[in-house]
Amino acid sequence: MKTVEHFVQVYLDCEFSRLPLPKDEEWIQKRIEVFERLTLRSLKAQTLSDFKIILLCGRTHKKTTMAHKWDAQVFPSYSFGRDRFTASKADYIAITRIDSDDLYHREAMADVHQNLICTPNRRECLIFRHAMTWDMINKILTPRHRRSPPFYTHIYPRAMYMDWKRFRADHFTGHGRAGGRLPETKELPEGRVIVTKGDWNIGYIKRNVILEKMTKEARAKYLVEEPLGAIGDKKTITEILAGFGIENGWEAYPWKKR
To answer: What is the pTM of this model?
Structure first.
């Protein structure tokens, strides 16, 4: 039977984003806090944990991220090094790309294993294009379809990693269109990912800005007229977060006091 080594790459630092966002010490500390309280907890709660967590850190905050005491399952990385993959003894290598403040259903990695890793025979791609977006500022939970998926996995025969120039361009440089041009792409149903959005996030959705400028009355009217909008009250948010491995989620939510 073919063997597969699975890497989960988590993007932490804003150096990987082109958006004009803060890069100060407060920002990176809050970023680490979100990762540890939310994403890491949802990853550690996975029903299938046979993967390595590679935390992709930028060099701007290298001193901070190197000094931080990370969980034993987290391996900080400051480059897309070829050696990490070519040193593997597996026949196939799977790389799942996620962000540092997204939440994953307990069976998300089991889905990857079931759909890709069990019977790999070529390059394949598994994506979650349908997700839930949790607006952390306005406490809005809404379904979203993303052209650039918030969660995807590429699986390659190990031999492809030997041609590093090709692989780097194919996987890392073109990852924003992951799955868009591959006939081998398989999309999984919605409800497996929550994309959290807030004022310290790498990403930012317009709904935050729109609602922040509205009066309370205008906001209520907007939410009634917006078919995808839904208020996430304490009970709803708590239940949903529990499904992603985050118990007592409302109390543990680091932005609650903001």
So the answer is: 0.76
